[in-house]
Predict the 3D structure of the following.
Amino acid sequence: MRFLGIGDSVELADLYLRLQTARHAVRVRVAEAEAGDVLSGMLVKSDGPLIEDLAWVGKRHTGGVIVFEGVGHGALQSRLRAEGYAVVGGSVFGDRLEMDRAFGQSVLHELGLPTAAIHEVDGFDAAIAFVSQTKQRYVLKFNGTGLSSTCSYVGMLDGGADMLAILQQQKRQWTFPEPPRLVLMNHLQGVEVGVGAWFNGTSFLQPPNLDWEHKRFFPGDLGELTGEMGTVVSFDNGHKLFEATLAKVAPLLRQAGHVGYVNLNLIVNDAGAWPLEFTCRFGYPGFALLGALTDEGWADTLQRLVEPTTSLLPTHRGYVVGVVLTVPPFPYPDGYARLSKGMPICFADDFTNEDRDALHYGEVGMQDGQLVTAGQLGYCMVVTGRGLTVADAQRDAYAVARKVAIPNVRYRNDIGDALVNRDFAELQRLGWLP
């Protein structure tokens, strides 16, 4: 089969490499110049006209598949599907669910789900005035995709004084000509958990999965919001939460022609399951963990999405733990070229083929036969471990991580601890897990 990847910075590096290892033809278009060295010497890149790559991959009847990595390309995906191409990624509707947070919350509210109060304001001045007046604790996020996760802020003080200070600081540093569209969501207490599934244009593949993300940089959930430093995923026991939340969106996704992954992040407490935000694309590192927990190769999974003959996905029981390995100055790009880009990546003498299968490369490339760090941020790779218990999966993941040698490598050593020590029991008490 032929696979054409379209994205900004080769976010699906591991998926492409695994397709290529399985002897499929792969070609990738990279929009951001600074990511041009990701998978250099390892993968075929294309910078020619899109029409040439479309001719190369072929239409649906030829077996070719086009994979879109991120959001914001829903209109192009719809056009390509209408022209007869097999496309996995998302839709116009999915783009809006993720990028326009207020819209996503309104959709969920109309479907009967409990939603936290959300306040959408234009510009910092309006946000500052709102928080000054209400004096409450909020979570700050930005609509769109142009800003990193480090710009988001989870308020810590009940009176909102820290949120005011952050808004004023970000206003001083704002360099774009247009003011941002800000979202202030009322802060919720409870267990954070995600529920997700692949949507094939008609229905969700079964079973759905549950995930527990670790977004802060340091162990103990301290430090910057990075997007994700590690995650626990399972296909076990997710049906109850799925049916109560994400499953209700299926008719709207079907109407929109959505084909791709959909995840709904939630806070669960005594008052119910409260949706926070959608992810309507491949998640990072989520896609790598899903692949490690699926009992087939990526070509088969992608084929299930574009040629929906069954709604069943073959999966492993238990859990997968994923640990993100980074180098300085991640999660910030400033200084990466000076501090860490081009650093060698080496492996212990007892590194096995099984260990290699647990590595999911991110910003790496090949330089004179040596694997090195590449890209823009220092997001090197994800290491996974799989087991019937979280403890088993943790043990396997960290055993492999210790065999990877990168100068100044950093990763969290507590992925899954809070889930085992606290959150499982609370989810059982609330009735969401057996």
